[in-house]
TrEMBL record:
PANTHER family: BNACNNG10540D PROTEIN, F-BOX PROTEIN CPR30-LIKE. The gene is SLFL4. Residues 2-156 form the F-box associated beta-propeller type domain. It comes from the Eukaryota. It comes from Prunus spinosa. The lineage of its organism: Eukaryota, Viridiplantae, Streptophyta, Embryophyta, Tracheophyta. This is S locus F-box protein 4. InterPro entries: F-box-assoc_dom_typ1 (IPR006527), F-box-assoc_interact_dom (IPR017451), SCF_F-box_component (IPR050796).
């Protein structure tokens, strides 16, 4: 994602870099507090309340097969504050219900203190490994992160 000319880049190894091409400056962020899991998505936004830039990292450790059921692990979220140069984990309750979880699928956008993703809501558990490939089990959703309150919200798109 990007915010106020700062571009947030990440690689497959879990490294995250903030780049400001206008002033030709790069900043490699410290390693995050969560393991470098198989699924990760990052975004950046400016918090007008604290007057600080925040990077959000949503991670998931993947899935595990229990008998003939495929079970996904819930996402975990951490926030990096530019002013303190530190990561901290936050609650991700809004990304999860009893039976489903939300996951970003596309590019993050920032607008006026809010970071937006297009993603999907999918069941936490499938009856078989191949059920997860069926797109009708997933629902398209816009979810967003309020940088000031550090809370996620979501809106399901119509079918």
């Amino acid at each position: 994602g990007h915010c106020d000319g700062i571009v947030c880049l990440c690689d497959c190894g879990g490294n995250i870099i903030l780049c400001n091409p206008t002033i030709k400056e790069l900043k490699l962020l410290p390693k995050s507090c969560l393991p470098n899991w198989g699924y990760s998505d990052v975004g950046i936004g400016y918090d007008p309340k604290s007057k600080d830039y925040k990077v959000q990292r949503i991670s998931c450790d993947g899935e595990e097969i229990y008998g003939d059921r495929l079970v996904f692990f819930p996402p975990r979220v951490e926030i990096y504050n530019l002013s303190t140069d530190t990561w901290r984990e936050i609650k991700s309750n809004c990304l999860e219900t009893e039976a489903t979880f939300l996951w970003p699928e596309d590019f993050e956008m920032y607008w006026k203190g809010i970071c937006y993703w297009l993603g999907y809501e999918q069941p936490k558990e499938f009856e078989s490994y191949f059920d997860r490939l069926e797109d009708e089990k997933k629902k398209t959703v816009v979810f967003f992160f309020d940088t000031g309150d550090e809370v996620f919200h979501s809106i399901l798109l119509p079918d």
